[in-house]
Amino acid sequence: MTTPAPECAALAEGLRAVRARTGLSLAALAERTPYSKSSWERYLNGKLPVPRQAVEALCAMAGEHPGRLLALWELADAEWSGRARSPAPAPAAPGSAIPGSATPRPGTPDAGRTAPHARQARWWRLPVLGAGAAVAAAAMTAALWWLPHQTSGRPTTPDSSTLDPAPGCRGEACDGKDPARMSCGLPGRADALGPPHRTRTGANVEIRYSTVCAAAWGRVWHTRVGDAVEVSAPGAPPRRVVVRTTADTSVYRFTPMLGGDHRTDLRLCFLPADGTARECYRP
């Protein structure tokens, strides 16, 4: 089976996350959209190119703005169509005719207007190029948000946007909740408590803390199916996340949050899939 391009895998991961927030089964998605249950299964697992309208429909059902996922869709669609692998067209030579335009013969009524018309056509194309650059920039921003990169040994994310939603909880109200869904883990809202730890299996783990939400959670990446990470603090139930699918191994996985100011009492434990001894760390 061919491994999907990172852009396509990232889109599938984003779609699965949004679908989870809808709380809808595949059958329910099929009932509410023009796409079958089997099509949704393929879309969500990166097995089939996703129609743009399906992305928009899923975001609408989750009550989420589609901009971030549509930017990812642009990147994935370029892979599916082959545009991402096509060489860029060579620039036109100075003075050459614009493709698709006729060059009047000398002496005809339009001959004297050829150069101005060519200049006008070239200027008309500049806004189009600007729009394309804006789409590319938006797509790259989304790619940085979803795709794991290797800078400093961990995925990276762009700076927080002024359009980010307000945090969904604070302190004890965050206990047991998803940091992503509560908008506590957005860029600029959370920091690592100490450096990341590399485990014996090659996974990386760290503890995150958001002063905005007054809550902590564990984060793990470069995992294998079956790996788990657990964050705990005295007097609070531990919170755990398990890596369940191959797609989960290429992205960040977060534990539910521990609400409250536990920064000095936290412990993070990595439980490898092979059943060997857990590895625990403190910030």
Can you give a write-up of this model?
This protein has helices at 6-22, 26-32, 37-44, 52-62, 67-81, 114-146, and strands at 191-192, 197-198, 204-210, 215-221, 228-233, 236-242, 253-254, 258-259, 267-271, 279-281. With 283 residues, the protein is an alpha+beta fold. Among the domains are: 6-85, lambda repressor-like DNA-binding domains (434 Repressor (Amino-terminal Domain), Orthogonal Bundle); 171-281, no CATH class. The strands form two sheets. Strands 1, 2, 3, 4, 7 and 8 form a six-stranded antiparallel β-sheet that branches. The chain has a four-stranded antiparallel β-sheet with strand order 6-5-9-10, with no helix packed on it. Helix 2 (26-32) crosses helix 3 (37-44) and helix 5 crosses helix 6 (114-146). The longest helix has 33 residues, at 114-146. It is globular.
